[in-house]
Write a structure and sequence with these properties.
Strand content: 25-35%
Helix content: 25-40%
Distance between the termini: 30 Å
Radius of gyration: 25 Å
Order of helices and strands: EHHEHHEEHEEHEHEHEHEEEEEEEEEEH
Number of helices: 10
Bound molecules: guanosine-5'-triphosphate, magnesium ion
Length: 370
């Protein structure tokens, strides 16, 4: 059932919470400011205090967001989005850096400095590949918990001198739960004590069977340090992507996911967004989680301003009124009034959840004390 806290109800009516409590007391109900009451009671109270009530269900507010299907004719191939996962120190960051450096054309603007936590490279087989640099499994899990499926392919990095370790197994489980195919990158093969064969057999225990052992999981021996076989890894990704037949409709309003967000001193809230459907344009009104904004600028992975970003394209979005959270889904809406309606609603929900949580904690503390 729908409920609302006394505090929230008072806020929405711009009344003092004590007045609401007093009214309830007159009716014989003893409540605290953090207590929640059902929507019917709240409506009666509000009307008694001279307010008009408009009850809005979630389904109304969120309607139309994220649910328009595309027809087959509208779908166009899009680049795969790849996340690199693996055990601590197995070389995830080194591999991401090596791929980016190897792909930078000399003299290219921006050089090798990374501007955002995601970038695109060109595969030796043609086509683009988008890499996102997730700070770790925790972020991946958090995004998944919010229903954001950002990754098409996981590259599982396993150091050949160390073998399968706890976070290797975790990554396998994450990928499996998200139904995302793995490509195994056996890293650090430049090391004298590298034992790539051992990695292959160890993986069998976790039901990852690489091609050279008769399975269907693509594998590549690489060295991030010596820059060995990076092209082969990109080829494997492109081949896997072809199997997945990844498509999206670029000709619709954009949807995407916030990969990271921060408050920048000079530029205000900055969100790195992976566009997943449609095309995001400068000037669009966007909502992400409980925040909204008008897109003031879009900046690509090389630090260049762009006017639009299509499917699988990572961009920095400037223009949010406040900083959204990593994992928030982004949608374009028709106007600012609609954006406000949605984000007001979500902010209320956030507050109510927080209030309910602290009420539960207080309740259990009281129980513990008595
Ligand atoms: P965390 O982010 O801490 O989980 O580590 P990571 O997986 O990102 O590993 P990182 O790239 O930081 O590399 C860890 C160490 O391994 C560093 O000292 C790298 O220089 C080294 N390293 C990474 N790749 C290779 C490689 O191919 N060969 C050798 N010899 N060393 C490597
Ligand atoms: Mg790292």
């Amino acid at each position: 059932p729908e409920t609302i806290s006394i505090q929230e109800l008072a806020n929405r009516m711009a009344e003092r919470a004590v007045d609401v409590i007093r009214l309830l007391m007159k009716q014989g109900q003893m409540v605290k400011i953090t207590d929640v009451i059902d929507a019917d009671t709240a409506q009666l109270l509000a009307e008694e205090l001279g307010h008009t009530v408009r009850r809005v269900a979630e389904s109304d507010v969120e309607e139309g967001l994220f649910d328009t299907a595309d027809t087959d004719e509208e779908l166009v191939s899009r680049p795969p989005v790849v996340t690199i996962m693996g055990h601590v120190d197995h070389g995830k960051t080194s591999l991401l850096d090596a791929i980016r450096k190897a792909n930078v054309v000399s003299g290219e603007a921006g050089g090798i400095t990374q501007h955002i936590g995601a970038y695109q490279v060109t595969s030796p087989l043609g086509g683009k590949i988008t890499f996102i640099d997730t700070p770790g499994h925790a972020a991946f899990t958090a995004m998944r918990a919010r229903g954001a499926k950002v990754t098409d392919i996981v590259v599982l990095v396993v150091a050949a001198d160390d073998g399968v370790m706890p976070q290797t197994i975790e990554a396998i489980n994450h990928a499996r739960a998200a139904k995302v195919p793995l490509i195994v990158a056996i890293n650090k093969v430049d090391k004298p004590d590298a034992k790539p064969e051992r990695v292959r057999t160890e993986l069998l225990q976790y039901e990852v069977q690489v091609e050279s052992l008769g399975g269907d999981t693509l594998e590549v021996e690489v060295s991030a340090k010596a820059q060995t076989n990076l092209d082969k890894l990109l080829e494997a990704i492109t081949l896997q992507a072809e199997v997945l037949d990844l498509k999206a409709n670029p000709n619709r309003v954009a949807e995407g996911t916030v990969i990271e967000a921060k408050l920048d001193r000079g530029r205000g809230p900055v969100a790195t967004v992976l566009v997943q459907r449609g095309t995001l344009h400068v000037g669009d009104i966007v909502v992400a989680g409980a925040e909204f904004g008008r897109v003031r600028a879009l900046i690509d992975d090389k630090g260049a301003n762009v006017t639009a970003a299509g499917p699988s394209f990572p961009v920095e979005v400037l223009g949010f009124n406040s900083t959204p959270e990593a994992g928030d889904r982004l949608a374009v809406v028709e106007n600012e009034a609609r954006a406000r309606e949605i984000t007001d609603y979500r902010q209320r929900q956030k507050r109510e959840k927080a209030a309910a949580r602290s009420a539960t904690i207080r309740g259990s503390l009281e129980q513990m004390m008595s």
